[in-house]
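Notebook entry, structure prediction.
Reason for the run: the old model in the group folder had no record of what sequence produced it. Starting over properly, with the input documented here first.
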Amino acid sequence: MPIILSSIVFNYIIGENLNKSSDNKKDYQKQAILILGITFNLSLLAYFKYSDFFISNFNIVFNDNIEPLKLILPLAISFFTFQQITYLVDSYRQEIGKQNFLNYVLFVTFFPQLIAGPIVHHKEMMPQFSKIKNKVKSYKNIAIGIFLFSIGLFKKVVIADTFAKWASAGFDTIEKLNLFEAWATSLSYTFQLYFDFSGYADMAIGLALLFNIKLPINFNSPYKATNIQDFWRRWHITLSSFLRDYVYIPLGGNRKGKFREYNNLMIVFLLGGFWHGAGWTFVFWGLLHGLAIIIQKEWESLNIKLWKWLSWLITFNFVNIAWIFFRAEDWSDAVKVLSSMFSLSNVVLPNFLQSELIFLSQYGISFTAWLNNIGDYTVVVWLFFAFIVVLLFDNSIQKTNNFQLNYKTALFSSTGFLLGILSLHKASEFLYFNF
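New structure, fully documented this time:
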């Protein structure tokens, strides 16, 4: 609490200073104030989130033995840091007038989205806090809010937490995976992350609507994407917007030639990877996505069209494979899963196929209790239905576009909420609490 309060007071004072007419200060003075503000925010984030990462790498490079600080990561620091940097930059640009301090405090600490996003922008949020209309009870917003919250709760504690046990077994527990176990492991994490993060976003948007506050959409069916650029227009939309508006465009965007554009894209994705976690696997995940964006742009210049289903298949499998580095605790875990996914020397089929396919034994294929190491056959059923849900159904936000409060939506909300509540006995945490 002292950390976020100190950060709020500091940034508010800096912002108000930058908001003052440029006639009162020379440009270089305002630039110095802005640099001070951004440096403060990034230093706070670096100290708490990246100190041990820098120390461990320093020890490796210089063969030293400095003890890690083992600091506890302050809740939501990755999110409120970015939110306040946008406020300072826009204040420097004279795009913000004088703000009420309590409204600013509310903007930074608004509890529905504080812990794991969306990364809200002051232009979207602060005017809403001042609207008299938003202080009047809205039964429609309450109904939609409960509807969204119920969907998000169900996504998180029923779907995401079910996939979590299979993903954790494959990544953290099992030392050696066969071909199908490796694919089940990677796909389980791919769906765990989506239903976990999008579930939280639904809950945040739903809670905010109870107070007549509309948070920005953070997900738009990202696993329906047919290219990697489309994926990033749909996944963690508010992070993509921040990196575009406050990193990519200030660096020059695509205005200074292709080479500079690709450099800027790579910087953005490397920073995006590092923002998610203090580890080289996160940086490598960002590198993969940066390379994928560049390859896509080069492919588009050839004007060669792929079938839509093939474009989707390539995109989804790339995202799924890249998530392995995002999830792995270290390189060995990533290599364990990835190498098993593409190895034909460890193919294991279920027992009931042995009588019909026994001739495959001469090719090194064995028969046993299928997927027994990470779970059982139910993982296949869950993966099948997960694909159907994310590919064929409207997402939660789309369902609110023509929302009507009736017996159907009331039953849907109450069922999702009840199943979510009944599943809360399990130990569970939101993945993005760690980022």
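Summary: The first strand starts at residue 348 and ends at 350.
The old model has been moved to the deprecated folder.
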